[in-house]
Amino acid sequence: MALDLFRIDERLLHGQVIVGWGMRLGLERYVVVDDALATSEWEQDLYSAGLPPGVSADFFSVAEALERLPELMELPERGAVMTRSTSVMRSLATAGLLDGRKVNVGGLHEGPDRRMALRYVSLRPDEADDLRAIQAAGGRVSARDLPTAREVELEELLRAAD
Amino acid sequence: MKPGRMDLIRAWLRTFSVQGSWNYRTLVAPGVAYALLPLLRRIHEGDPDRLESSVLRHLDSFNTHPYLASLAVGALARLEHEGASEDEISRFRMALRGPLGTLGDRTVWAEWRPFCLLIGITLFGLGLGALWSAGAFLVTYNAGHLWIRVWGFRCGWREGRDIGKTLREFPFERFTDRLWPVTMFLLGAATVLLGREVLTTSGGTGSWTLLLVAGLVAIPAFRWPNRFGRLAVGLLLAVPVIWIVLAIAGQGW
Q1: Which of B96, B105, B170 sits opposite A46 (nearest CB)?
Q2: Which residues lie closer than 8 Å to B15 by C-beta, 6 or more apart?
Q3: Domain range holding A102?
Q4: CATH code, A136
């Protein structure tokens, strides 16, 4: 799978992703990495319900993802890997899967202990650490909600959340 | 207690005002909580503390297409009725907002509304009066709109957390998908009919110039949509304005 998008977004598969990114990049497959979702059928049905015809979604636990992503990356389909937290993306990065890949921060909204960096990104200190770790593991982290929006590099993002 | 028929009707009627308190922080959540209230009052009857905590959690940020909000209200009420845990309800709300938004956008805004508008415009072009044409649009459009609200509320209330399976087969989407060729046909018909209207109203060479310019813009717009698409849409929107100005001025070019 030619993985064109690695995205951290609390809302996972929603309009901005499916229409904004998916249709633009021609994505055919989404891999959602989340331990809770991997075992919950009704949630998988809900998240998949908004996908356009011909587009599929897989739901992997972190362990499954580490095992199966390297082989999926060899397939010709175009796809995206989605996580709802920085920590899960960090696990993929420390396993060496994100070396040289772009990692997109797309939506982490206001919440307890979070400081707003951008309109669509608020970060806790541990989340900022996760992003640094992803960068250190070779990922190129930047924030951007839609492909048409300005790309904000990690340094600027962390400065804004300080 | 299980909500009765009257409670359900009351909640359904309240879904019409779901955007009344729309705001950037919690989006449609206050509207959804307001619609849920008659059901929550019945479900948590005699337990004011639980009622309060359940209303508060539904005030947390939530988004949906306004018509499909009825589905959210039905399904959330079912979860509350079944005594689902706070964590489960919050996960359900999180998972539900995505598909309700995209399905609504894709079927209602991108397919159903243009189809109904084109029906109105085509009827007008065929010589039906302006009021009748507008009326035809409103009646057709709202037939679909009300159908979604009724269907959504019933399915949501019936299926609760398992609504995802039904949504994957959203019948309204199958219907609008089949309408797509008809919409394309109507678009062509409406363009021809309106073009004829412009020619007969303004008369003279000016209107031919207008059509010629439109044609010259249309070709690059089709060939290079990214570069000329916006210009073409802009001119398309300008044509009726020019036409109205000409008609008011009452004296062609």
Answers
A1: B96
A2: B31, B35, B69, B70, B73, B149, B153
A3: 2-161
A4: 3.40.35.10
